[in-house]
Amino acid sequence: MFKLILKILFLLFITTSSNAYLGPGIGGGALAATLGIVIAIFAVLFGLIWFPVKKLIKKRKEKKDHQLNKVD
Asked: How far apart are CA 66 and CA 58, in angstroms?
């Protein structure tokens, strides 16, 4: 078992030349994809936090308005 793990690790760390051309567009695409994922995560977190807070604020405002109308 140890020999198998050693062989796998050895093969993972061997470097070879790829002889492939990666143009400048690949960097822009990778950056856009990364930013898209990060923005999507923040949008989900914002939605999960904002809408319950918005509902809570609305309830407090309605309760305050109800108390003000009750006194008048």
From this structure: 12
Domain ranges of the chain: 30-72
The DSSP output letter for 58 is H
pLDDT at residue 33, rounded to an integer: 96
The torsion defined by the Cα of 29, 33, 38 and 39, in degrees rounded to 10, comes to 90
- Side-chain-facing half-sphere of 3: CA atoms under 13 Å: 0
- Retrieve residue 7's tokens: 């062989």
Q: What is the pTM of this model?
A: 0.52
